[in-house]
Structures are given as C-alpha cells and as structure tokens.
Amino acid sequence: MSDRSKESLLEENREQKAGAAGFPWIRASVFVLVCFAVIVPFTSVPEKLKDYAKEVYAARRAANTPLPPPKEPVAETTPEEEIPPLPKPVVVEPEEPEEQIVPPQDHTVESGGDIRKMYKGFKLKTHVNVDKGDLASQERGDEESYTAEYTLNINLPQPSKTMSELSKVNPKLDAILPGLSSMVEDAEVSGFYYNLYQNKVDRLKRDALKLNVLTTKHNFYDCETILNLSHPESKRKVLLMQADMDVVSDGSDGDRLSKMPDEIVNSTHYQPFTSYGWPKQTRTENPMVAGWKKRIENAKKEIADPATKEARKQWLKDRIEMLKRGIADMKARSFLIAEYDPFIVMPVNVITNRDDKHAAKVGDYAVVIHDGKIYPAIVGDGGPTFKVGEASLRLAKEINANSSPYRRPVSNLTVTYIVFSGSRDADKSAPDYKKWHQECTSLLEEIGGLGEGYELHQWEDLLAKTPESADEVEEDAAAEAEESGEDAEQEKAPQE
C-alpha cells in the first residue's frame, strides 16, 4: 500500500473518532429516559399497562379454576349471519381479605365489668352524652364535668280479681272449688297486696346503689294477687293468695325428733324455732340445744382472747344472751319441723295484724292447691314483709320431689294458697294430721266443698311413735328423773 493510501486511511479514521467524540450519546440517552418518565404518567400508557397486568392476573386465576361443564352444541351460523364480536374479558380484581374482628367477651357482674347481663333480671340502658366544655385543666376540677346517672324503672303489677284471671295461672281452680266463683264476684283486693309491693319498692329504693343486693326480677314479681273473700251464705272469711313457692327448712322438736344431723345441730344459720309452738311433753332435750351451748362456749373463748377488740366482745356478749334465751325457749316448747310437717309461711305483718278480719294468724288452717291437687296445712311461721309464697320442705317435696332448701318446687305463679281466717284452735298442740284433714274438710264445705273427682290429700305422720319407741321415751324420761333426783341429793349432802 502506498504512503498516500495510508494517509487517506489515517485521515478517515481520525474523522470517525472526531465524530464519535463530538456527540454525547450517553447524556442523550439519559435525557430521553427522563423525558419519558416525566411525560408517560400523563398519557394512557400506565392505564394500558395496568389493564394488561389485570388481564394476566385474570388469565392465571382462570387457569387455576376448574373448567365448567361442557355446554350444549350451538348451531353453526350461515354466511349471511353476522357474527357478533366476542365480549371483552371481565377483569375481576382480587378482593382484599376482610379484617377479622374478634368481639370482646361479655363481662359479668362477678368480673366487675358490664352489668347489663346481671342475673337480677333488669335491663340496663345506656347513653353517652358529650357536651362542649372548657380547658381540660378546669374540667378536671369540676365535679359536674364527668358524671353518670341511672334510673331504675319498675312496673307495679295489678292484682287479678276475677275468676277468669285466677284460672289463667291455675286452670283447674274453678273445678276444684265450684263455690269460689260466687265469692270472687264480691272480691276485695287485700291491703296486704299493696303493702307487699310497697315494701318491695321501699327496699329497692334503699338498695338502689347496691346493684349486687337488689332483689331479682323473679322475686320482685312473686305474687299474682291477694284477695279478701267471704262466702255469700256461710259468711266464711278466706284470704286467697296466688304466688310461687319457696322452701323453708326451720324448726325442731325434741319430743318427736330427739336426734338431728350434726351439720344442722352445729349450723349457725338453721333456725330451731317456728312461730307455731306448744309446751314440751317430755323431758327429752331438743337436739339443737347442744349446738347452741357449743356456740356459747366458743363465744366465751373469743371474749377471753386478748386480741379480741372491744366492739367484737360486746357483740359476742349480746350474742350469748340471745343464745341463752333461745335455749330456755327450746327447753320449754316444741316447734314444727319443716322437713316433716306441712305448713305455709305468711309475712309477719299479716300474722300480727289485729284490724283486718281476713288476716291470717299463726295456727289458722289452710289448703294449698297446685296442679289439680289439694293439700291441707296450717299457717306455721312468719316471714319477711317483702315476699310471699313459702312452704315447708315437707309440703314442697310432696309437690316436687326434687325440692330442697336451695331449690324451690314451683317457680311460676301457679300456686293458690287459701287461708281460713280465724280458724285456729284455741290451744296449740303437736301436729295431728288426721285432725288437720278433718278441720280442712269442714272448712272447705263452708265455701262450697270440693268439686267432683277431687279429694283432700292425707298426710302420713313420719314421726309417729311406735309402741317400742314410746316405751323407750318413757324409760329415758324415768332415767333422767332418777338422775335428777340423785343430783339433788348430792347437792344437799354436806361437803367434807
């Protein structure tokens, strides 16, 4: 190659390098990319890219979905028919999973939380009012800036007064007592009914701020009616009451039941007395005396303890005096035993009333009607002035075998109590169930008698003494008398 040719090639090569060095390709590329990034968001390109991504997602989702069953064959179209365009695929955007909200567990009164579900039975309605206030530093010192109010609303029930109303809760009542209809025509609602519910309301007002001690809705509405009735012909006065039935388990009698379970004898809650009592017939000691003597000894030990405070000592001394009076009463009298004797309980203000001629008195004969059966009984004890519908455990178990001191036999207001006002015997004596049956039968006749097919229940005496047991009682009494005589002789003997 000639020198000139070499020079030409070198010159041509220098021109190419000069051209390459003269234009900034990298900077130009960067500039184009920046422009693209700035301008593209304002065009339809992003939307198209987004739609494309949705189509891809839908296609993948469809691929994972089971194929639908094959459709029936479609007839082929003729050349003349216009084939419609295929519809655009429906793009289904993936749904966001719903947030799993776990509701809080209901609080109960025992946990100190939400009191809307208290077993008391009332419904608590709440509402939060928010008003515009002042500075927080000032509102903090204002007693009225953060307050709560609650109102206890009560519907006072109306007493049933007609035979149809009485029969709603005791459907067989008119058939059991055919003469009752004529008595109800002139029925007078007893003042004891209104007094009962007034006592309930007063008690609620007193305990309004003590939600844990408010009476339950069930116990508030425990009485359907109390009526003063008189038979138009015999003029026999009757106190009729419809209520539920709770259980009482008090009473003791050493003459008929010389031994009782240790858990009862040593109980600080069991009451050995009933309002109905009579003079003791034997020298057999009431079994509850031993438990009360033990309580006295325990009280004396606590008083002697230097750590016992003076207020407690005074209370124990008063308690000892009460126990001594109770022991003296148990040594002098006998009482009904709820587990063995059928009797009912009336409020104290009823049995102590001297003005109302229809008022029930301790010892008055009565009948209890439930589920087509009639049970003879007596008014044997007095109870609180704010509740009704109590009967002895013996009567309760006869109505419902599952009854216990802690389980009522009848929860609904379906029990009818009829007390024959002023029918008690002049002298109180130990229960004689045959006599009770006879007396209640005669008294029922005075108000029209029992309906056809109904009869008065006959109680069995579960504590009746057999000849052997009667002899044992006499032997025990003789032995006690002999021991007492020996003790007296020893007391008279001079001390050495």
From TrEMBL:
Source superkingdom: Bacteria
Compartments it resides in: Secreted
InterPro entries, A to Z: Chitosanase_fungal
Main location group: secreted
UniProt keyword terms in alphabetical order: Carbohydrate metabolism, Glycosidase, Hydrolase, Membrane, Polysaccharide degradation, Secreted, Signal, Transmembrane, Transmembrane helix
Compositionally biased intervals (Acidic residues): 469-489
Disordered: region residues: 64-87, 465-496
Membrane spanning stretches: 21-42
PANTHER family linked: ENDO-CHITOSANASE
Entry protein name: Chitosanase of glycosyl hydrolase group 75
Species assigned in the record: Rubritalea halochordaticola
